[in-house]
Each structure stands twice: as C-alpha cells, then as structure tokens.
C-alpha cells in the first residue's frame, strides 16, 4: 500500500507473493476480450491498401487500388482504379477521390521517395506515383520489376544514402533510388525466385538492411545479409526454419522486446503462425508455432503484425477463410503477444474483408490506439484504458480504471519516481514497459467488473502526497494506464 512508504525511501522489488497473485490470475482466458468493434465499411473495394498522410493535414488517409478484371477469353469486364480516401475529420469519415479510373494493381507500398516530405507510392506493375502533398499524385516514372509478376514489394534504404530503394523478391532485385524517385540500376546478389513475402530488417545489427523472403513452398525464411558495399547488394542466401509448410507472408519485429529482430511467418498449408526469435547476430531459435485462426475449419491467408494493445509489444492478426471458400475473410483472429513471443488468441471478427485484401494497421481516429483497415473496411480499436483518482490527499482515496478486460485482473503498481522499468521475464505481461522506476511495488490486485471497471480504496497519509506515483496494468491485455501522481 502507498502508506507504507515515507518520503525518500526506496521501494523494494516486487515481492514473490505479489507476483504469485498475478501468475494465478493470468490463467484467465482472453477469448472474451474485445479489442476491436465490428467492421465498418468506408466505401472502398480495393485489393491493396496503404496508410499515410497523403494530404498533409496530420491524419491517416488510405490509398487503395484494385486491378482490372478480365474473363477467361481476356475480355475486359471491369476497369481497375486507384482511389484515395482522405480522412478530413481525423475520425475515419472519409472523402474518396478517384486518382485513376481505368488502371489498378494488386500490390502497393508507400513512402517519401523524393525527399519532399509528401507520401509517394510504388506498385507491382513498375509504376511510381509521386505525391503532391495535397492528396493528388503524378506518375513519376517506372522501374523494372523483373519478371513482370510481383507478389510482394518493400521499400528501404539499401545503400545507406538516406533515400528509399525498392526490393523485389522475384529474382532478388534491388533497385536504387537516385533521390528523386527514379530507380536506375538493378543489382542481383543472388537468385531468390518466387518470393511472395518480403521484409527488410537488420538481423545481424551491422547497420545495413538485410532481405528476408518466403516463397510459399519451402518451410524456411530465406535471409540475404546486406553487404554494405554502397550499392545495395545482398549476400548469398541462408535458410531459417519456420516450422510449418508453405509460408506465404513474413514480418520482422521485436517479438520478445530484447532489442533484436525476430521473424513472424504465416504458414499456409499448416494454418499456423511461426514466431522465430533472433539473437541479433543473424541466427535464430527454433520457431514457436501457434494455430493461425480461431477453432474451426479455416485456411489462413493474410498476416499483419502491430501493437494493438498499446503496450509497445507487437501483436499478430491473421485473416482466414472457411475451407473451400476463398472469396471472403470469414474470420480475422487477433492474437496478443505476452512479451516473450507467445501468442494468445483473444478475439474473432467476422467479415472484415476479402481474401485477397491486405490488412494495414494505423491510428485512423487519432486516439493513440492502432486500428486495422482493408481496402473496404475498418476495425476501430475500442480499448480505452483510462485511470482516475478520486478523493483528497491525505485521506481516503479511490484508484479506478475503466476499459479493462471484463472479469480480468488489474494490478495497481507504484513507486516514488517515474522511469522506464519493465515487467521481469517469466511473469505475466513480461517486458511490458512501465512508466515507473525500477523497484516499483504492487499496491493492489483487483478484478474488473462486467463494465471493465476495476478499483480499490485506501487511506493515504500526508507523507505520500505529491511523492508517490501509481500506474495500473491490465494483466489480460498487458495494457498500461498513464502514470498518475498521488496528490
């Protein structure tokens, strides 16, 4: 309790008994937790989607595209298009503007390609669109996409000259940017055929980007270390096992928050997510493997990795279809990361999009929480973990959290100083970043009611007023509140 401490005393490390309480309560299932509300259709029909502030008003817009449709005889059924959805009010009420009414494509990535602070775009057909910063674009040129059929693209500074280059997995192409958004040279360091997923990251921590690809067949991720030769050349490939068969997507993220890059793959044939923890030297552990969807007869197709619980730990989203029904996302599964790279299924969402649509994560309504979007729908993050103190200090005070997981455990932690301590490894919500200094203590453990409210009351003495800081942790989602001063 806060009243145990006098001004200037140093709080001791959390007692074993306190963490025993947390450990027992963490066995509660997360399956009833709702991080996202129901899907909202915003008017789109895009295949590929990319978020960005395309009109410079400080809010997240969505750029979507879909390719033309042809029948089996090659006759045009429907024109493709590029459409931008401008988030004028910052709350996800979009104004749609068609950029090109007779052209579209399957794959899209965005970034500032010419250093003018406006967001540009690159597609899989070799087209470069330069943004004007007002929501409009001009065709800036083209690039050689190698085999002409590209399933994945990535942007990154491969030659360390402070601009974004293009990496095309098919054939191992690295196309260098001259700083204006023109891509002038191909360097083929090794043969990486059939890559359908790509991630750029520094797996060996030499300040040079490396290339990670999956080809949809071999049960491996293929890594090419950047040579750092100033020309973007990747070195020869080596394989890292991902467990299940036919990985079709790969992400790079620090899944156990140890400062090293880890890999996450979606293994299509075995319907699972693999988390492969890295050591920072280019080597990796054996994969941790998790069922990639809610229980049922599903096939998993689409993978996204992002922190959707607001605790600075990446989580995983997977969209799947019913077996034999490849045309709709029958369900999207949300998996919360426990901070050690273990995934816990927490929510199933139906009819979020179509099986060919990618999923992107961005704060669309400016509430500091990650939302999800496809080319047609948005999932707004509805976690809202608020914290308030009622009462006067000194005296009896009530500490109350709103927005916690219904029926879940909330831990109230405190210290005499703010800081950047983390929950120790091996405990619930391991490595979650707190706003308290090392040596914080457990003040109270409460159970949230059906409305997500958890609270406790205590008598606070004068010597704690203005000296103690308190923060709440939702053990079920590993989200933390803001740090409040007791005063």
CATH architectural arrangement of the largest domain: 7 Propeller
Quantity of strands, as a count: 38
Tell me the quaternary state: single chain
> Can you count the helices?
1
Proportion of strand residues: 35-45%
**What's the story with the biggest beta sheet?**
5 strands, antiparallel
Our measurement of the CA-to-CA distance between the termini, rounded to an integer number of angstroms, reads 15 Å
Task: Choose one word for the global shape.
Answer: globular
CA gyration radius, whole angstroms: 24 Å
Instruction: Give the C-level CATH assignment of the largest domain.
Output: Mainly Beta
Q: Class by helix and strand content?
A: mainly beta
Helical percentage: under 10%
Q: How much is the average pLDDT?
A: 84
Q: Which segments are poorly predicted (pLDDT under 50) over 5 or more consecutive residues? A: 1-32
CATH homologous superfamily placement of the largest domain: Integrin alpha, N-terminal
Offer a quick outline of the entry:
The protein has about 475 residues and is an all-beta fold. Helix content is about 0%, strand content about 40%. It has one helix spanning about 15-25, and strands at about 40, 50, 60-65, 70, 75-80, 80-85, 95-100, 110, 120-125, 125-130, 135-140, 155, 165-170, 175, 185-190, 195-200, 210-215, 220-225, 235-240, 245-255, 260-265, 270-275, 290, 300-305, 315-320, 330-335, 345-350, 360, 370-375, 375-380, 385-390, 395-400, 410-415, 440-445, 455-460, 470-475, 480, 485.
